[in-house]
Description:
Methylamine Dehydrogenase, Chain H; mainly beta; 2 domains; 46 strands
Amino acid sequence: MTLVPTxxxxxGDGPFAGxxxxxxAVLDERSGTVAVGGxxxxxxxxxxxxxxxxxxxxxxxxxxxxxxxxxRLVRSAYPVRALAFHPVLPLLAVGTGRYDGGYSFEGxxxxxxxxxxxxxxxxxxxxEVLGVEWSGETALSLVLAPCDxxxxxxxxxxxxxxxxxxxxxxxxxxxTVRAExxxxxxxxxxxxxxxxxxxxxxxxxxxxxxxQWSVRRRVWxxxxxxxxxxxxxxDGVLAESWLPSGELHWSVGDEEGGRQLVxxxxxxxxWTNAERRGRRRGRRWETSPPRVARIAVETGQVLETLSPxxxxxxxxxxxxxxxRPSDGRGKRADRLLMFGLESPADGPGGGPEAGPEAGLETGxxxxxxDLFNHPFAVRHAGSPYVLVGxxxxxxxxxxxxxxxxxxGTLRRLFPHxxxxxxxxxxxxxxxxxxxxxxxxxxxxxxxxxxxxxYVVRRSLDGSVQWQxxxxxxxxxxxxxxxxxxxxxxxxxxxxLDAADGSVRWHTGLEVDGAPTTALSLAVTPRGHLLAGTVDxxxxxxxLRP
Length: 545
């Protein structure tokens, strides 16, 4: 019997880690707890979006005021707008919601039963709930956003106040607060939380406990080194390094943060790419220049920075790295940008600020990229692999797995979908011997269907050796040669036998009893499994007893 690995340590941990960016926080003197609503963000970036299907990053956490231990951590389908502890019952009222982008204000009134953890969505129909306040034991005052903004240009700044009465709120069932009970008074100005007060509350609580609080989110890449260091790329951090002792050694900041890590063959440096999205600056939207950097593992010094002109995905394999443009604009026939043909450790030779003219060469045409169809990051790859379509006008269709040869040419290996009638989205992958294990999802007009996500092992001629079907998409794959480790956006981690795809073990990821989700995986040279989580932590598991 194969044992589930044991959690050896947690790097990057901190108070209120499971909440992400807080929106609202409320103290309850009676129970000595604090409730916090927050957002961990989406599990997609410009180079990969398939894993976001069925995901919500909105969280409601209840923490002890003394010690800050997490008692409850639950998910919400919508952003958290308001929180209120019941004056007597172990019950938390939660108002959630958002504008749907085109017409309606949708959301829920959630009742979190703090003794059992059960969550009840009490409204008969979706409504954005901007405010909740108990008026005694039986009356709950709600501030509701308008149903829509069809005839009200001020709907985004106003809300209606109603009072709902129940003799026992602990017994309220799903959908039992009926629409006719929400007949409201005329709309009045209603504030939306901006998170500033919540951040102040959390910082003060952490300080009172002798700790510091800051937001860490989404560890997109992790790697282990021969000497026991742990490298990571995450939101707001281009790359960071943790010593074998568990101490943070260095960190290179970035306005958005790193998304991939590609160590050099000699292990002395690591390549990473920074996300680049438009940001509002005053009345204008601006996007910072793309950034691909090589960083010294020993010191954290940025050795050189490439300026490819567009955001690119790092595609590594066989001691080589190429850049694939991923801006996805129109039907332009994008080409790979080649560098490090001798060794990524040598770099393109352009010095600290190197542009395309300093070592980047135009490679084969691969068609345009989109974050659902073309992600195909292959760990332990013998050569760089990419997904390319056969139709220049529709590169997402009829995709093939292709390898970049030693001479820079592109060689198509096999169709990405092994079922001709199905359209498969891209996803993470690993190479084992003369085969690829890759994960993805089957496109369906109504979204991801049961059994629509998969992990499959295929020979380099495309023949299927085994497949493992699931209901939730994979966020990361890793292998030690005998086992394939698959992380899912549900927070689960599954170990598959690399030979036949059978399940060796299956577990839900937790830190101190609170659930979390892995975005990245890496088996270290010392035989540990690293999992970079959506809440900014790095979990290190011992794979062997």
